[in-house]
User: Which sequence fits this backbone?
C-alpha cells in the first residue's frame, strides 16, 4: 500500500503517526504528494484530489479522508487495537469524537488558519469561528471527552486524539488567538503530540509554518 501525504498537513499527521506507531512502514509506503494531487495520475486514484490518500495494492483502488484511513489501518494491521480498541462502547465513543471533529470542530479552522496557505480569510469569519471554538467546542473537549482522563475517554492516546490534537496547531498562526486558547486545551495538544515522537518532524513542520506566519491577520485580536 501507499499512503500519499502532505508532510506539514495536520490531516496527514494522524495517518503518518498510525503507520509509525504500528511499525508498518514495510507494508505502507509513505509518499510525499506535494504538488502532485492535481496530476492525471493522482486524480485517477482520487478524483477528489485530497491528501492523505491510501492507495491499495493491485486493483483495489483507494480510500481518502484521514479518519477513514486511520480506522482502516488500525482494523487491518497488527497492533491496531492499541489505538482503536476492540471494545464496542469505546469504539463508538472514538467514532463519535472523530465525526465531531469532522463536522463540528474542524469547520472552525479554515477561516482562522488557511491564511497560512495564502488563502483569503475574512477577519470577521476568523473571529466568529474562534468564538465558536471557545464557547462550544473546547468546553465539550475538556468537560466531556477529557473529563478525568489525559486523553479522549482514555488513559492512553487513540486515533480520536490523532484526529483532534494536530489540528489545534493551526490556531498558532494567529498569535493572539492562541494566547486565548484554554490552558487545558494547550496541555492536551502538547500531550498528544509528545505521545508520538516518531512523527515529531511532521508536527514541527506545521508548527513552524504557523508560529512563523507574519502575513495578513497574524496579529488580529479575537
Assistant:
Amino acid at each position: 500500500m501507499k499512503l500519499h501525504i502532505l508532510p506539514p498537513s495536520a490531516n496527514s499527521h494522524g495517518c503518518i503517526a498510525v503507520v509509525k506507531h504500528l511499525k508498518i512502514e514495510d507494508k505502507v509506503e509513505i509518499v510525499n504528494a506535494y504538488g502532485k494531487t492535481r496530476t492525471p495520475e493522482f486524480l485517477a486514484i482520487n478524483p477528489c484530489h485530497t491528501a492523505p490518500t491510501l492507495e491499495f495494492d493491485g486493483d483495489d483502488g483507494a480510500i481518502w479522508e484521514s479518519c477513514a484511513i486511520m480506522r482502516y489501518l488500525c482494523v487491518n494491521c497488527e497492533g491496531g487495537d492499541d489505538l482503536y480498541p476492540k471494545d464496542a462502547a469505546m469504539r463508538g465513543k472514538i467514532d463519535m469524537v472523530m465525526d465531531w471533529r469532522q463536522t463540528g470542530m474542524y469547520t472552525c479552522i479554515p477561516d482562522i488558519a488557511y491564511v497560512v496557505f495564502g488563502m483569503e480569510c475574512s477577519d470577521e469569519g476568523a473571529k466568529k469561528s474562534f468564538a465558536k471554538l471557545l464557547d462550544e467546542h473546547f468546553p465539550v473537549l475538556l468537560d466531556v471527552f477529557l473529563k478525568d482522563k489525559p486523553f479522549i475517554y482514555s488513559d492512553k492516546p487513540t486515533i480520536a486524539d490523532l484526529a483532534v490534537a494536530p489540528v489545534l496547531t493551526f490556531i498558532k498562526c494567529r498569535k493572539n488567538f492562541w494566547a486565548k486558547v484554554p490552558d487545558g486545551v494547550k496541555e492536551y495538544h502538547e500531550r498528544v503530540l509528545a505521545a508520538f515522537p516518531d512523527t515529531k518532524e511532521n508536527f514541527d513542520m506545521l508548527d513552524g509554518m504557523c508560529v512563523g506566519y507574519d502575513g495578513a491577520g497574524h496579529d488580529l485580536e479575537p
